[in-house]
Q: What sequence folds into this?
């Protein structure tokens, strides 16, 4: 779900969204962003939660000149065990090597291809055997550090997150309000419709209702009706537009969200 924010708005509108089946969020980063590409913006910056992390999806966004910022999931328990993690090893791109916490050099040792198709480079050193920090580094005979062939894309993303630590808080404040409001209006239950194309229609109506209430609270009912009339006059045939003004007559209303 893509949201837009104006300086004086407390809550955003939702100009783009995507309804999918049961596949995980991590497979939807690039596809979800594609829904917002058509908004006509010159530059697109994407902020998502860690559930959307996928190296391949982030690479697709980078190749499309889309800036992505999201935290990487912590899949290793080394930090909880008091062991060094990959972030403690400094990569030196000029020499294609890593420097470990003990100041030893880890050189390229071979390739590794994961079952998901990602290609990794392996780095290691023979100094692990006599290292004084070995107990803080690994329980194996040797510490091996792997690096994805497009790791620079992930490092650039982490650097953006480090430079803007409030990015995730801004995301929560921006995105969670539409979700919470729509869920509350639906009764915090499942969709009523079955099959994906029917659910997409139900979601579209829910988002439309949310955007209308946001527009009313932002600009008011009168200006909104005037904007709709102007739109109809510009894009609808005159035969259809003549039937609309009666439906757009302001009536007594109660306060909305």
A:
């Amino acid at each position: 779900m893509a949201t837009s924010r104006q300086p004086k708005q407390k809550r955003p509108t939702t100009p783009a969204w995507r309804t999918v089946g049961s596949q995980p969020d991590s497979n939807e980063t690039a596809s979800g962003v594609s829904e917002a590409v058509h908004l006509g913006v010159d530059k697109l910056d994407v902020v998502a939660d860690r559930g959307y992390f996928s190296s391949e999806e982030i690479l697709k966004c980078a190749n499309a000149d889309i800036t992505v910022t999201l935290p990487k999931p912590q899949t290793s328990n080394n930090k909880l065990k008091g062991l060094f993690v990959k972030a403690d090893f400094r990569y030196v791109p000029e020499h294609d090597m890593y420097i470990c916490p003990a100041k030893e050099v880890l050189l390229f040792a071979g390739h590794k291809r994961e079952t998901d198709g990602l290609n990794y480079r392996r780095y290691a050193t023979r100094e692990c055997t006599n290292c004084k920090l070995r107990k803080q580094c690994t329980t194996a005979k040797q510490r091996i550090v792997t690096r994805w062939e497009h790791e620079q894309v992930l490092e650039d993303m982490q650097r953006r997150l480090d430079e803007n630590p409030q990015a995730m808080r801004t995301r929560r404040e921006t995105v969670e309000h539409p979700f919470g409001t729509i869920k509350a209006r639906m009764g915090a239950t499942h969709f009523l419709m079955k099959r994906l194309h029917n659910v997409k229609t139900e979601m579209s109506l829910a988002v439309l209702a949310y955007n209308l209430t946001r527009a009313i609270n932002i600009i008011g009912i009168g200006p909104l009706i005037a904007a709709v009339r102007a739109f109809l006059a510009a894009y609808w045939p005159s035969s259809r537009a003549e039937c609309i003004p009666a439906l757009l007559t302001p009536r007594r209303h109660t306060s909305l969200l």
About this structure: The chain has three domains: 2-72+159-219, 86-149, 220-257.
